[in-house]
Write a structure and sequence with these properties.
The complex is a heterodimer of chains A (189) and B (1033). Chain A has 189 residues and is mainly alpha-helical. Helices cover 47% and strands 1% of the residues of chain A. Among the domains of chain B are: 297 residues, Alpha-Beta Plaits; 53 residues, Single Sheet (N-terminal domain of TfIIb), CATH 2.20.25.90; 179 residues, 3-Layer(aba) Sandwich (Dimethylsulfoxide Reductase, domain 2); 122 residues, Barwin-like endoglucanases (Beta Barrel). The chains are: A mainly alpha (189), B alpha/beta (1033).
Chain lengths: 189, 1033
Amino acid sequence: MSNNFIDYILRIRLPIVLFVAVLSFAITYFASRSERDGVGYAPEQPINFSHALHAGQMKIDCLYCHTTVEKTRHASIPVVSTCMNCHTIARKDRPEIIKLTKYYNDGTPIPWKRIHKVPDYAYFNHSSHVTKGIECQTCHGPVEEMEKVSQIKPFTMGDCLSCHRNAQANLPYLKQVNKGPDNCWACHR
Amino acid sequence: MSENFDNKNHENQSDPNYWRSFEELYKDENTLKSKLDEFKDGVTDDFEIDKNLSGLSRRKFLALLGASAALAGAGCSDYRDKGEIIPYNKKSEEIIIGKANYYASTCLSCENACGILIKTREGRPIKVDGNPDHPVSKGKTCAKGQASILDLYDPSRLQTPMLKRGGSFSTSDWKTTDQEILKVLNSDPSKEIAIVTHSIISPTTQKLFDDFKIKYPETQIYSYELFDNFIKNSAWQKCYNQQNFPLIKWNEAEVILSLEGDFLGIEGNKVEQVRLYSEKRDIMKGSNFNRLYVVEGNLTLTGMNADYRLRLKPDAQYDFVMGLLNEIILNKKVSQISLDNNSVSILSTFTLDTISKKYGLSKDVLNSLVSDLIKNKGKSIVYAGRSLSEKVQIAVNLLNETLGNTTLYNNNEALINSNLTDYIGFEKLTANINAGKVKAVIHFDTNPVYHLPAEFKYWDAISKSTVITFATSINETTALSNFVLPINHNFESWGDVKVRTSFYSLVQPVISPLYNTRQKEAVLLTWLSGDSKNFSETIYVDYLKNNWKSTIYPALNSLFDFERYWAGILHDGVAKINEKQQISYNFSQVALTQLDNQSESKAGYTVTLQESYTIGDGRFSNNGWLQELAHPVTKVTWDNYAAISESTAKKLSLKTNDLIEVTYNSNKLKLPILIQPGVADEMIAVDLGYGRTNSPVVANEVGFNANILLSKNSSLSRWILTGASISKVNGTYEIVSTQDHHTFDDTLIQDIHLKRNIIQEGTLSQYNKNPNFIHEKKHDAVNMYKDFEYKGVKWAMSIDLNKCLGCGDCVVACNVENNIPVVGKDQVALGREMNWLRIDRYYSGTPENPKVSIQPMLCQHCDHAPCENVCPVVATTHSDDGLNQMVYNRCVGTRYCSNNCPYKVRRYNFFNFRDHFRGGYQEQASFELVMNPEVTVRSRGVMEKCTFCIQRIMEARQEATKKNTTIKGTDVSTACQEACGTEAIVFGDMNDVESKLSKYRNHQLGYVVLEEINVKPNVTYLAKLRNTFSEEV
């Protein structure tokens, strides 16, 4: 094999191959970033529930439905009977409410699609955040404006930590807030 | 640095040589060599690529990896599905998602019936702890109680009624079985209905039986326990004309002499006894310790905690007690009562001298025993084990009477007699069945085919009757039954319990029945009503409440109406009643006529049959957590064996794991031997409860059924068999113990580990003279790191070795709390058991009279943790509250950390053990419910270790955050700490100088293990003090 050929491979072909590989990786990586983090994920739900109507227009407090958010680590999705507090009377004839009533009467739970999820090995606690005055919208976005809920922020460890390490800057609406713990076992155990 | 490890500094010490096994004592080359390696040879054999991955080369593997990555990249086009969130349809009021509820109930794992609090999450029980309001157990439970939660979710539970038709079982339904059984019950009223049950400890169950007898007057009740207090009680009856042996105020005894009595381990209500005993072992309350003498054959948990232990064959106990009586009454002229001439002449035939010579008992110890007993008249107690013969029991009662020790009997409270049936009763039953006089035998959650002596041929007899067996899972008796009826677990049942005067405790269900099971009492009620239709879910609770309303409640003069009163006692789990009584003890001299001058010992071998520390009478043999919990003394798991002394083994030319055949009264049993230090010569000790022949998958082929040695004709008692013969037979059987691996890293110089102060101990008099005696020798610790300043809380633990008895209750509590899998015998053999907390046991002294030292060993959460430096992926790091954190999702399984851990407390998931053990047994759906949802379930390839119950710390921290306060050290207690019956474990904040933890940590007896390597552990131990009569250990 001539020196020229090796020279060609090393100086021209190899860099080109490497460049193409790195570039395509970089483009895919950044382009698919939000998708991988789930940002923008807005699945079809079994019932077309509108947060914009309930939380926005009618100004029902988040806690009316997400009852445990101040008590435990789960915000919890409302039990079907909570919906029926109003809908045994209100808008009984609408197709979505008829669906809802059927779930209720059958005694079957509603299989809501999950939108926000941290991995099983991360133990996020809603109550210790919410009771400190952190608004739901800080992580979940303006839910009260959403016809169909979608994920706004990436729920990555980096995202958690950026706030934990620099809480005051990220939560300017709070008068005073301590920074959150940033040791591993704060979330993983 | 090298000076630190130099042996010379320590050579002048009088430390005993600690040894963990005979191989180590005799410096067996292979054992010593194996200590050099963190992982035993063969540990990684399963992972050789050639064997398992069909020779896939690295290049091919990488190619495959690339291709699959490319495919995955090309294939992904949408968001990942994140599953569903399914809320309740209608939620019960009590449930707050994510918050635990606690319900008071009563543990029915044994007849002691301790009060428990069951922790439930989203309606499913996940943990059992003691009920602090319970007057006896006071917030503690034993290992069996803790582990019983696994039985609730056991997928091999019987799930539907079964019927035997033409020799094989078919599943049925309750309606059919009820109807068919009613037909049998209503047939020929001249024939007997036999109900075979365990102790009846529930007043309402007793009433149900009485009602049953009214409807079916031909009913007879038989009750038994594999281990009972029959002999103790009948001796007591003869001496004091009272039914039951009294409760003992252990906390007031200055001197305790226990003869063959394992009161700290398995006899009586252990939970209460260890608490009372350890009250006099509390260094924080001053150094007024009790002194424990133990005279026994096999080395038991009580024996290993004794200040002085004498090894003596159980059949020589009579000679011993009589010798002691002779010495005290005739020689030392101490007596509260005057004996007649006959008794005196009998006594004078036994002298302590001859016995000490004959059995090689130390003269010094005997002298000090006699003088201690005399010096502490009225403040000492002599306790004879329940297995000893009536003669010995009477002699011991006399001894206590002589010494005025009756003051230590509790005269305000008494046990309730449960009137068990003796072997004669069962013999009659068998005869009646054989004669066709019994139309139905109802086994009320009992397994007599397994428990009764073989010579009754009970299994043969019951084929002549209709057999109805209530059971939670298959057993030897269900196999021979016509009807097998699945019953509710303890946690699915209602009930009431009365085991002592002065209070009742309540049983309430915490989950609705998982399967098509019914409570056994409810089934009887349905039969009483005459029609299967009358069953309802509330049939028994209604009956229970009615019984309370009509018989118990009116006598209480409660201020509340019945419903409120009932709700109150259900909440508390306990109903205290005013039943104060004054019992007086009047010794009746007539009993002494039972004493004679005949020695009990007999030529040949003595066999003692003992209750298993873990699996009870066999009812827990399908419980993996209990099977895997190491025996507190021998550290053997998953087996029983014949414990034998070294010299007897030599005489028979036996080695550990050799098989022997034991012959007693023509009953033969083949089982392996284990050479056990401290066992008396010419005897073997065997645990019962193993060797189940018809059992679910976990108990399959575990151990040997020693019940076949039980005999109605055994001379001394059911559990002490004299004159047995032993012969060696061909073959070996591997016994597996956790003893000789995961030991300390002692590779530097062979001798050094004997002197590394892992165990530090001394005597009480040494301590009184110089409280700082363990810190006399100083290490020049070298520090390579800058010290981190821990502001706020810094977590630490202290373990008081004066109180730790080595029972292992904490280990099970940890298993339940932290989702620790069962690995199985084969994996324990390779040193892969997963317990985060282990109890190390060291012997020192001679194999004949070993001194035992115990030390719970768990992650020490070192400030300068050696594991943290070596992790290539930073999966283990330090937190600013002093915890050594292990992050599973980051771990790639290099095992460097374990290699570098000086304490050997890290555990590696060589497999997904849930998948691996017994063909994925633990992966079955029902076991998902037992998991603690606050703790990650680890998978294959991940390192894990003690977390100081970080889930509890975080919960307390989050609660504090919510309340705008900061977390305090007292806000958290770990699972092991909660479980410890003697409060030996203290946990808290070391930066809070006022805290209990700081007092323990800074106590003069406090030390850290391997101080010289200066890793600064956050776990400290309080050195054990032996209460001996001289300064020597």
